[in-house]
Specification:
Layout (H helix, E strand, L loop, with lengths): L26 E6 L16 E6 L3 H4 L5 E5 L1 E3 L3 E6 L4 E9 L4 E8 L8 E4 L3 E9 L2 E7 L4 H8 L16 H4 L7 E4 L11 H10 L2 E8 L21 E5 L1 H12 L4 E4 L1 H11 L8 E5 L14 E5 L6 H10 L1 H13 L10 E5 L2
Parallel strand pairs: 1-17, 3-12, 3-14, 4-11, 14-16
Antiparallel strand pairs: 1-2, 5-6, 5-8, 6-7, 7-10, 8-9, 9-10, 12-13, 13-15, 16-17
Helix pairs in contact: 7-8
């Protein structure tokens, strides 16, 4: 398939610029793959149906035998504003912390800094560009505080580029899931933003089990695909951990006949990366560059919860692989018509595997 296959018309006013006051007050579009499927009808694509719901209705879609998998990464205030020693403005977006005083970062400036160039960030932090590694810059911070401590004190929440406003104090809490634990992401696993402690408690009361993975979402998730032929696209690397406890929980769910439900594309990529080598889920720690496009064989995930994704994005390609290209494009056209809220602070979908 070509890049142009993954586009759709989206009125700008449907891009959510603010989070709802109540996390679970968002809408939920259920893409029901098996709706009205007769006994001898094998054409699932022609028999899918769309149901307009509210997010709390997720309780009716998840059964006691099922297993919810959450990404427990925690967003860091990764954005720093400042100037170069030449006087030009610069924006530094931390991608990965290397140690207490070094990090890899995306740097935006009128002219990219060179190795040895000095930066003054947030009028307080002296830094130096050590080297350039492809699209990322290695930066050393000359400060007694560690990189994480500097970010917590001076950094801005790295809102996505389609949210056209500056971050606010409210974003520190709202652009974070209630189950965030492991520090390291520069973008939120947004499907998880809809869950509240009350909803999690209701799921537990119903008997639904949960497990966790960690995928530190990188700023690369917002980079556009720049090639028409998808086979030529080089996927950005993101750090993943899937532990033995989660592997055991998935195996137990499969044994009892339940569904493995991934909360977000990041959970999908974590699980499928850990199963890619053998086809069976195994503990995995390290970088993944897994690029999921139509035709991919899913080994672990049965259903998923996800937000709506940007046209021509790798995430739109992933959900198209999961639920079928025609099903997804029909669902997106329906969502636009019904004025769903799109992207990070927007509404959600419940998808079943095609």
């Amino acid at each position: 398939m070509q890049l142009s296959d993954f586009t759709y018309d989206l009125p700008p006013e449907l891009i959510a610029q603010e989070a709802l006051v109540e996390r679970s007050a968002s809408r939920l579009l259920h893409l029901d793959i098996n709706a009205e499927l007769s006994h001898n009808d094998s054409n699932k694509a022609s028999s899918s149906k769309l149901h307009d719901k509210h997010f709390n209705d997720i309780l009716d879609l998840i059964n006691p035998n099922d297993l919810l998998i959450f990404n427990n990464t925690r967003v860091i205030p990764a954005r720093l504003i400042g100037t170069k020693d030449t006087g030009g403005k610069v924006e530094v977006m931390i991608e990965r912390v290397l140690d207490n005083h070094r990090a890899l970062a995306h740097v935006r400036a009128n002219k990219s800094p060179k190795a040895g160039g000095k930066l003054l960030l947030e009028n307080e932090i002296e830094a130096e560009v050590i080297a350039r590694h492809d699209t990322l810059f290695e930066i050393a911070f000359n400060h007694e505080l560690s990189v994480y401590e500097l970010l917590e004190k001076f950094g801005h929440i790295p809102l996505p580029p389609y949210i056209e406003r500056e971050d606010t104090e409210a974003d520190k809490e709202r652009y974070q899931t209630v189950f965030a634990e492991e520090v390291g992401a520069v973008a939120a696993p947004t499907a998880g933003l809809h869950f509240t402690p009350e909803l999690l408690a209701a799921l537990a009361d119903k008997g639904v089990e949960t497990a966790k993975v960690t995928l530190h979402v990188g700023a690369g998730t917002f980079l556009p695909v720049r090639v028409d032929n998808l086979e030529e696209h080089v996927m950005h690397a993101e750090w993943v951990e899937v532990d033995q406890a989660t592997c055991d929980a998935v195996a137990a769910c499969k044994t009892r006949g339940g569904k493995v439900i991934a909360v977000g594309t990041t959970s999908v990529r974590s699980l499928e990366s850990a199963a890619k080598a053998t086809g069976t889920l195994q503990p995995f720690t390290g970088d993944t560059r897994l690029f999921i496009t139509p035709g991919f064989k899913f080994n672990v995930v049965d259903s998923m919860i996800t937000n709506f994704h940007v046209p021509e994005s790798t995430l739109l390609m992933l959900v198209s692989a999961f639920s079928g290209y025609e099903n997804i494009m029909n669902a997106y056209h329906h969502a636009v018509k019904e004025k769903y809220r799109f992207f990070s602070y927007g509404d959600a979908m419940y998808l079943e595997k095609c």
